[in-house]
Design a protein that fits this description.
The chain is mainly alpha-helical. The protein folds into two domains: 11-128, no CATH class; 141-190. It is built from six helices and two strands, in the order ααββαααα. The chain has helices spanning 11-20, 22-33, 89-98, 102-110, 114-127, 130-189, and strands spanning 52-55, 72-75. Helix 2 (22-33) packs across helix 3 (89-98).
């Protein structure tokens, strides 16, 4: 099996793929939300930055929905069943998101569903792009930089507290010496 370097679980690849392919994004939204493709006239991606659970906002005492216009969908890809129905756009998309090998991509392409073949081709184009490699490099560097900054801050804090403890130990040692000296003076005066 040829392991894919990037999968659609990478939010960087996901954003690049669907930001550049609005038609595929429309297909995805249609499949996942069960809306006819033709009924979607336009949509705005406000923040480009799962098996399936659907959540809705409810009033906590009466359980009355806040609105019927908003729900949250979660897909747990690890629990995704084997693909049985090539007519289910949602299941096809979820299989694509879950694909981790070139063989899985070829299997999706072999189903001969035009928009999925287009999605796999677009995925390959984005996955091979220098733009994605650079974004992933910058993301990785930012993660390393953040981890280093946290490590340095923790080390500095440890050193500060070690200094405080050392000062207290010195003060306690000085006090113990003073007490011993005073006890010696008391003994000599008795």
């Amino acid at each position: 099996m040829t392991k894919l370097k990037y999968t659609l679980k990478s939010d960087t690849l996901f954003k690049l793929l669907f930001a550049k392919n609005q038609k595929l994004l429309k297909r995805l939204v249609s499949a996942l939300l069960g809306i006819r493709y033709e009924d979607i006239t336009e949509f705005n991606v406000i923040n480009p930055e799962k098996f399936h659970h659907e959540f809705q906002c409810l009033e906590v005492t009466t359980y009355v929905p806040l609105t019927d216009k908003m729900v949250l969908h979660f897909y747990e890809l690890k629990k995704l069943p084997p693909l049985a129905d090539t007519d289910s756009g949602r299941d096809l998309w979820l299989k694509l998101f879950n694909a981790e090998t070139e063989e899985e991509l070829k299997k999706i392409e072999s189903m001969e569903v035009s928009f999925m073949s287009e999605a796999v081709m677009a995925y390959r184009h984005v996955a091979a792009s220098s733009e994605l490699r650079e974004l992933e490099r910058m993301r990785s560097k930012a993660g390393h930089d953040e981890a280093q900054a946290i490590y340095n801050a923790e080390r500095k804090e440890r050193e500060r507290w070690q200094g405080v403890v050392a000062e207290k130990d010195t003060a306690l040692a000085e006090q113990a010496a003073l007490i011993a000296k005073l006890q010696e003076q008391i003994k000599t005066q008795q």
